[in-house]
């Protein structure tokens, strides 16, 4: 199985931190933020469940650009074989 070695950028990590600190952030935004931060400098990959959630966010019109940026980052760090 091929490993994806991409990590979360400083910009996305900053966005993710702000999302997690904001009590008004949606649950999905917080999940994506947590996933993105778990991939900062650690070499972790996105799991299949988070891939599905991120895909749904990107295919929907109801999420903010910030949430979609987190979803894009999370998907870019998914397993290359999935």
Describe this structure in words.
The chain has 82 residues and is mostly helical. The protein has four helices and no strands. It has helices at residues 10-21, 27-38, 48-58, 65-76. Helix 2 (27-38) packs across helix 3 and helix 2 packs parallel to helix 4 (65-76). The termini are close together. The mean pLDDT is 90.
* Quaternary structure of the protein: single chain
What string, H for helix and E for strand, traces the elements in order?
HHHH
- If you compute it from the alpha carbons, what radius of gyration comes out, rounded to the nearest whole angstrom? 12 Å
* Helix percent band: 55-70%
The average pLDDT value, as a whole number, equals: 90
